[in-house]
Amino acid sequence: MDKQTAIIIPARYGSSRLEGKPLLKVDNKPIIQWVWEKAINCPLADRVIVATDDSRIFDACKGFGAEVEMTSSEHKSGSDRIAEVADRHPEIGYIINLQGDEPLIEQSNIELVIKGVKEDLNADISTLVREITDEREINNPNLVKCVFDVNNYAMYFSRSKIPFERSLNNKGEWKFYGHLGIYGYKRDALFKMTTLPQTSCEKAESLEQLRALQNGMKIKVAVVDNVPVGIDTMEDFEHFKSIVGVC
Question: Which tens digit of pLDDT belongs to each residue from 67-111?
C-alpha cells in the first residue's frame, strides 16, 4: 500500500508576540480554520491533521470538523510536535509541516512542497523560497535567506545577507532569496532530524533546518513568486483583515 501524504498543522496557544493567535477570528472563522481549509483543498494530500497542546484549540478544531490531535506541551519546535503525531501513524510516509499562522498560503505552494519531497528521490526535505529585492528585507535578520545550488538543493540558510557582495562592481549579477516556513519531509528524514542533537550552525543562527544541512541531509528548494501573509503580531492580524476585506 502506498504511504499516505499528510499535512500536519502545528498550533499552540502561547506566543510571545500574539497569544492565542490560532483562535483569533476573521469573518467568524479562527485563523487555524483558514489554514486548515487551504490544506484540505489540496488534492495531493491524503489527510490533514492539526497538532496542538491546547484544549481550546483542540475544541475549536473539532467544532469546524478538523482531524486534530493533542501533543505534549514540552516540544521546543513545530517539527517536534508533528513528529509526535506522525509517530502514531505508521501509514503516513510524507509529512508536510504547514504553519498555522499563514491563512493565505496558496494551494499551489503546498503542492510544490509535496512534489519536491515525493518526486525527488534524493531529497530528504523540501521547502520554498521567494526572490527578494528590497534592501530592508535582504538585511532583515527576521527574514531568513537561502542560497541553493544548480540542482535546487539548499546550500545554507542565514539571518544574514547571503551571498555577501564583496565587490559592488558586479552588483545585480546575483539574486537574493527569502525562505518561506513550510517543509515537506520523508518520514525517516523527519525522525532523523528531530532526534539529532542541535548543531553549531543551528545554535548560531537559531535555525532548525541547519541541523539537517550540517548532518548531510538534502533540502530541495522551489522558487515561488508570491508572499504568504504570516501572522505574528496584532499589526499582522489587522493587515490580514484588510486583505480579506474585514474591518
Answer: 999 999 888 888 999 999 999 999 999 999 999 888 989 999 999
Q: For residue 95, with 0-12 CB atoms within 10 Å meaning exposed, 13-18 middle and 19 or more buried, which class applies? A: buried
pLDDT in tens, 137-168: 999 998 999 999 999 999 999 999 999 887 76
Instruction: Name 239's Cβ contacts closer than 8 Å, sequence gap at least 6.
Output: 229
6 neighbors 46 (Cβ within 8 angstroms): yes
Q: What are phi and psi of 167, to 5 degrees?
A: -115, 120
What does pTM read for this prediction? Answer: 0.93
Best CA proximity match to 67, nearest among 80, 85, 83: 85
Cβ–Cβ under 8 Å, residues 76 and 14: no
Residue 207: closest CA among 59, 114, 77, 98: 77
**Among 53, 60, 67, which Cα is nearest to 14's?**
53
List for the chain the helix, strand, coil content (%; round to 5): 35, 25, 40
Nearest CA among 86, 90, 39, 119 for reference residue 194: 86
As to burial, measured by CB atoms within 10 angstroms (0-12 exposed, 13-18 middle, 19+ buried), residue 181 is: middle
Reported as a single tens digit per residue, the pLDDT across 205-244 is 999 999 999 999 999 999 999 887 788 888 888 888 888 8
Domains of the chain and any CATH numbers: 1-105 (3.90.550.10), 121-180+198-225 (no CATH)
